[in-house]
Each structure stands twice: as C-alpha cells, then as structure tokens.
Here is the input.
Amino acid sequence: MEEWKGSPGAKPHAKRSWHLACKYKLMNQRALRKLCQTGAVLFLLVTVIVNIKLILDTRRAAYEEEEDSTQDYDDDMLDMEVPKQPANTRKVLDVEVYSSRSKVYVAVDGTTVLEDDAREQGRGIHVIVLNQATGHVMAKRVFDTYSPHEDEAMVLFLNMVARGRILIFTIKDEGSFHLKDTAKNLLKSLGSQVAPFLSWRDMWTFVGKKGGEVYGEKHAKSPALSTWGDAVLLKTEVHLTSLEDAECHWPNTELNRRRKTFCSKVEGYGSVCSCKDPTPIEFNPEPLKNNKVFDVPVAVIAGNRPNYLYRMLRSLLSAQGVNPEMITVFIDGYYEEPMDVVELFGLAGIQHTPISIKNARVSQHYKASLTATFNLFPEAKFAVVLEEDLDISVDFFSFLSQSIYLLEEDESLYCISAWNDQGYEHTAEDPSLLYRVETMPGLGWVLRKSLYKEELEPKWPTPEKLWDWDMWMRMPEQRKGRECIIPDISRSYHFGIVGLNMNGYFHEAYFKKHKFNTVPNVQLKNVESLKKDAYEIEIHRLLGEAEVLDHSKNPCEDSFVPDTEGKVYVMFIRMEQEADFTTWTQLAKCLHIWDLDVRGNHKGLWRLFRKKNHFLVVGVPASPYSSKKPPSVTPIYMEPPAKEEGAVAAPAVPAAEQT
Amino acid sequence: HVVKKFLGLISSQNIPVYLIDPLVLGLIDKDIEQIRTTSDGPSPECKYFCAPRDFTTFALLDKTWKHEVDLFRTAERMGFQWLRVLHKDPRLDGMDDLSGTEIPLHYIFKLASHAIHLVVFYERSGHYLWHGPLRLKQHMDRKFVPFRKLHFGRYPGAYEKPELLPVSLDDLKVQIPQNPSNFLEEIPHSRFLECRYREARAFFQLYPDDASLEAVEFRKRAKSLLHLAALTLNNLGVTFWLSSGTCLGWYRQCNIIPYSKDVDLGIFIRDYKADIIPAFQKAGLPLKHKFGKVEDSLELSFQGEGDIKLDIFFFYEEDDYMWNGGTQAKSGKKFKYLFPKFTLCWTEFVELKVHVPCETLQYVEANYGPGWRVPVRTWDWKSSPSNVQDNGVWPLEEWDEVIQTY
Here is the structure.
C-alpha cells in the first residue's frame, strides 16, 4: 500500500524561512544569535515530532488514502471538521438601524444583516426578526406599505412571529401611504410611540421585543410633501436571554427534533412553532387503494420563496396517496431557508448553484432537476413535476393514479397536467371529466421518462438561449402534435404572486378565480375515452347530442346560454385556418378566461362550462368538427378592438417607481 | 452469536438485508441444492455462520429503509457500537453543480470481537446496483475495526441486481442471492469507475458542446446502437469494453463524441465466439466488413441505423502488451495498434453499465497520444493513432478470407 507523502514537503520550506529571518536579524544584533539558534533547534524538533506523528497517523490511515491518483474525487480530506465555535457567551447585542430615502441597513454586533441601497426597489418597511437567545437573523422581510394590501401582509407576518423575538423595523423611501390603522395599532402594541403618527415620507427605525421591552425608536418627519425626512440612525443594545427561555419544550420525538431545529432558525411560519399547540408536520393521509403512482418520483422545483414552499409541501404531504420517499425538492441556489423547510418535513432536498440569469436560469434549473430525478430513481418511467407556488388537490395522486396508464398506452400524448388553463370558477364544473388539449399547461404535470431522455434532454435550450422552458416545450418542434390530458377542474392551484412572471394584478386577473378540486377520491369518468381514437368518437357523440345555440344573440351576454343545467350546447365561431384565433381571443376575453394566448384547444374545439352546462365552441371552417354545423348557422365573428395609439395589450407590470 | 443478534436487530426494525459475505456464501454455495430444498429443519450444527472470521457482510438496498435514528438507538441498547460512512451522492455527480444531502454507503456494527459490515447498494441508471468506497473521514476512529480486511469498500463496485432467496441457515432466517456462485464470481470483477464529470465540465468550458440537430440525432442513434450491441453481447456472455473514440468520449467528456461517426468496442480474442456475427445480424445489424481472422488481426464492422457503424476490435495478448489489428481493404496492408496491459472496470455510460479499461489514461494515451484532451476532427486510422505500427501485407491468396466487405 502506498504511503501518503504530502506533508513532509512542508518542513524544509518552513525551516528555510525561519533561517532567513534569523540571518537577517543577526546582521544587526549578534546578541540574538544564541536565541535564534535555540529557537531554530526547538522549532526543528517540534516539526520533526509533528511530522513523525503525522506519518504514523497517515500510516494508520493508509486505507483511507488509498485511491487511484487519477480518479481522486474524494473531497473528504479537504473539508476537515472545524470545531464548532462555543456558543456566544456575550449577553448584549449592539444593534444599528438606519432609515433614509435611498438606503437602509441593519447591523448586529458589527455584522451587516441588511443593506439595501438599490435604486427603485426595497421601498417600504423592512422587518428583521432576531432570535432572542442567539441573536441570529430568523426572518427578513420587506413590505411595500406605500402600495395597497402590503400592510395586511405585514400584520399577518408579525402575528406569526413568536413572543419574545426581537423585531427590528426600518423604512426605506416611503412606508406610510397604505399603512392602515390595523397595522399602526399593531406596531403601537409592540411599543412603538411613533407608528400611529407615521406619515408621508417620514423616516423611522424601531427595535423591540415582541410582547416585551422597547430597545429604541427614532423618527424624522418629512417637512413637506415633496421632500423626505432626514436620515435616522438608531444605535441601541439588546439583552439576550438564555437558550432555555427561547425554546419550546415539546416532547422529545424525531418529529419534534426536526421542529426544534427549524423553529430555532427561522420565523414567520406561525403555529408550526407554537409552544402550546404546534400544528403537525406529519400528515399521514389515507393511502390510495391500488395506487399506480406510489413509485413515481415527485420533483418539486423551488426558488427562494420558503413560505410558498412551506405551504406547497403541506398540501402535497396531505394529499391522499402521497409517498414522501419519492419526493425531492430542488432548490435553485444556495438558500438556507428553503432547505430548512424541506428538512422540517423530513424530505430530501438538493441545492443547485445558479449558472445563468433569469428565464434561462429557471430553464437550467428545470433541466438539472429532471435529469437528477431520473438519476436518483433509475427505474421510474415517469416523474411528477411540481412548483413551489402550487397547492395540491387532496385527490391529486388519485387523479394521476387513474390516468397515468394513458401515457403508457397512447403515444400521441405529451403529458398529463393537473391544471386546466380555462378552468375558472364560472367555467369548470365536473371533477370527473378529462379533456385532451393541444397545449401544455404545466403547473403540476407528469413527464414520461422516454420523452425527456430521448427528446427533450439532448436538445434542452442552452443557458445563452434565455428561453422559458415551458414556452420551449410548447413549441411545435418539441410537442410534435402530441396532446396533454387535463381535468375539467384543476388539481393544482397557482397561489404565487411574487415570481418572475407574476405580479399582483396579473394574478388577480388570471389565477385567483381558478377552480380547484377539494373533493377526495373522485372517480374519473370513462378514462379510456381519452385515448386518441376513442376521444374522436366521444367528441362526435357530444356534438351529435349538443343543442345549437342561437347565433343571433351576443355570445358575451349571459343570456346567450339558456338557464338550464346539465345540457350540452355548441356554438360556431369563425376560424379561417388552423392559426386563426381572432374570434376565439375576443370570446375568451368577454368570458373572462385565459386570453393571453390560445390554450385548451383540441382540433379547433374548446370545451368548458357555462351555467352548469357543457359549452362547446367550434372554429369554422378550420376545425374538422365544422361538418356538424347546420347550414343555416353563420359562424360568429368578433372583431378585435381597434388598436389605440400606445395601448398595451397585456397589463403592464406596475413599476416600483420612486414616490 | 453476533450475527443472530444483528438479525434480531434488523428484523425488529423491518430492514430487509441480504447476506453477501464471500466466506459464508462460499460455504453455502457448496450445499446450495440441499439448502434450497430443505425447509426449516433444525440444523444439527453451526455450519455456516460459525466459520472463523472477523466480519460478516450484509447488503441493504437503499430505498427499502429510512429510520436510521431508531436503528442506531436500538443497536446501542443491544450493546452494538456502530460506525457510518457517508459520501456525496454519485448519482448527482454528472449534474451541473447540484449538491444534495450525503448518502450512507457503509455501516459497521461491532459487538465484542465480531463486526457486521452492512453495505448499502444503490440502484443506478443502467439497471445495476452500485456500492460506494469506504473512506474514513478525519475524525473517525481508524481502529474501529481492521478496515483493510473488509471484503467490500476498497473500491466502489457494480453488481447485477440479484434475485433473493429466503433460507434458513444454522437456525437463522436470512436472505441470500438466489445464485450465490454467480454473485461470488462478480466480486473480483466488480470495481467501478465513476466518469470524470468535473474534467468533462472543464472540457466543455473549453470546447462548447455541439448542440446542433445533427449532433443530437447522432448521439441518439449512437446511444441506441450501443444499447443494442451491449444487449446482444451480454446475451452471448461475451465481455466487451468501450474502445477508441467511444472510450475517449467517455473519458474526456462523459458523452458520445458527436462527430465520431461510429461506435467502437473491444473484445479479447479469447472471448471470440462464432455466434457473434449471426447474433448481430439477428439483432438487425448486418455485417459490413470482416478483416483478418481469429488467429490474427480480427476486426468486425456492423451497419447500424442511419449510417452509424459498430466496430468491434479483437485484442490479442502478448507477454507485456496487448494489441489489435487493422487492415486496409484496397492494399491488403496490415496495421497493429499497441496498448499497455490493462484490466477491466465497470462504469456507467449513456445509461448503460459497461466495461472500460481500468487503466483508462494509459489506454487513451496509447491510442491518441498526450494531446488527447484536444478535439481532433480529422482522423486517419492508418496514421493518426500514436500506437499504430505497420504490420506487413496479407498474402494475396488469403485476401478472400481476411478482407470481406459487404
């Protein structure tokens, strides 16, 4: 067995430098010679002893070192365990808080824990929560209370913080415009004297213990509407309590050990960290009988939105038939808090170092996550792909268990998705009904391994392409005419409002009123009829039975559809060729469903519900179902509104402009 | 004794382990017929587990268990000392910068003078089981057990997934591989090499990958050709390895070189079987040419789908080197490619468990010279390789036999 020869090489070098130093000094001070020599001898002796010990040690450890030198992948030797720093014995923290128009910062014991001087962002009230025993930052938030409803989010957050935590507040730019009385009163109850009188462009800092003492507060009034208050800097001291006092005393179980680790690190998760009556972190939902997706891996794609991830995982782990062993959470970046959430639930988490920017980064994260999923579960034929801003329906796995065989047996399928783009409160009705659509909705879907490995992975867009992965997957080169299976009523709910392509207005308009199934164990209807040829028969049957609506009426009016229930109606719209969606887009607009691009179509046919009746829309003459149109009916044509100068089709992202 | 106690521990935790101890399996293998047929009669003597040794080795499939903490606690209560070896997950190694939680590779449970070595096997892409190397970290007790005597863990290893057989041995119920002798034969040849993913990434930084449609298409075809070839040869029981450009692709970039035009495999001439040609033809790969003969410079080429060729080079062993031959069809010239001696290791390549020379660097350098790190697109098999030698000319009367093209 070969011996490790790394360390002895260090010896001569160290010796030489010592000698050089001695020589230099001797030129001037002969008196030091003796000392130097003794020193050198001593040093030599020590090095020799150290080295002998090292050699002995390494000889003993030779087994571990033996590795093919060219194949050395083991970093273990490098990350030697550093002894843990003894717990901070200091009882007092120095806290500095700065508030101004263009910059805020917070420093704890000289360490900057918040610094925001970026232009045109970070407006509002910044809140930091410290652990009262360790002084560690447990949460960091900013609430843009210049804008509406942000104060409500702040109240919600502050109410979730445990008693005894240290709260630090500071305003950047403007934080009072939409700070309503409820929020002001809450701040007052925390000990702030200024909060009730905070006004336009005031600067403000405050440090206090939740349910306890106030450590300091500073305020600078804005002298006039057009100017800001002077910058304020608050310096104060915070007294730490003992660790005992800062922790809850839950029974010592595996689950509670996880809970304790989590709750001592982060804040803002409400009752999961409640001492008295903590909410469970294990759910044990009913198992599914004959679960066909028990062994299907589930990849949860996450970024740095730990609160979303927390909500998402709760709903996922509560879904019937879930198998936690198969879940892997892929976190885009080295973020600690999402990983803490993953560990709280005892799941496997994988972090992914970001390699490119924005959309392309999300794409690369998706690719890495999918590849890793199939590496970790080499026997899997499918993977369920979820995102961190989804609620998962209680019968999500039941829905997949009943439908997944279609992916195996029908090659004309691209995916199964839990999301119906057109499934709004007023347009979706039947939890047991499935559709085939030519679009790829995402938002909770099943991917076939062979599709990924043989087609998608090899030509996945490279980072410099800056493409959205889902847009890319929807392109005809990838989809190749294949379709996805979707439910009428979605099995996922998109709750995220802070995302790359998301903002409050957008979410309100397009996602909030989406229907979400809450009924357990729904038995899907006639799944077999979703196969390629069977579906055509089914559609023809439906169209045959459908009553043709009165085409002289305005299709946007409610009265267009009679006040019945459970009937099937059909209308015909003009659609000159396959890509002519002019009338459809106008119709989608007035029906208040997804109109930003075309979704949910199957051969020029759309299926939805109106007033609890199945409502079919056929595009004539492009759709093969046009033949069902009675000769007397003229397809409805709806003209797009004349474009006004400078009008924007999609709502613009509200810019965080300086006030 | 210790084994019994351990099995008690394991079954109390519902952990399905199986016996892979080479010594005990060796004893079992001698009586395998008898063991298979006799059901639990009380055995007169302690025949298998009482053979003198320091360890007993068991295997565990990773996905069959999880409650580690409980296991350790119970083990401690029963008087076991334990040690666990963690490692980063090799299944994520090929990925851009993913870091997961570390995975357990080995456990050792010690009681008095005997120890149980529990090897964790992971299922990987390519339908095989993998176990990791046993490397101690700095803070671990190096004298916990005589680690060098362990049968598993000196290198990572790759194995077929065995069928298990529940048996009763010395009054103990255990699971063993259904065919112990097959498993025992695998052990000495199980060494596994991970692809050099870090170097591959560095390579692609220098020479960005070709993502054109043709490259994607070629890789897809080459991959399925390789899968088909592996299936065919494995069915015949013929050992083969990645050679030439395919081997270089694995070693340098962990992928198929998109401009390489063919798939290259090596086979030792001692493993040659006459069935090889018909087997490939049956698999839908017609013979394209056959050069040389079994006694000298044999080389087979099969036509794959979409203009991709499968080249099989037969390797001849001399006292201090190995070689394979080449033949130029139009001139009858013979060439000889020399390689330093090598042994075979397992690796994973395009979701396939395949052999490569363990001494890959020497192999690749012999073939491509010290500049193998730099991609070369124009390659002449008669002059470019650094290990090529002229080897005379086939006598005219033999041409019909040694130069067959279709």
In short: Chain A has three domains: 92-245, 298-527, 531-628. The longest strand of chain A covers residues 613-621. Chain A is about 30% helix and 20% strand. Residues 202 and 435 of chain A are 56 Å apart (CA to CA).
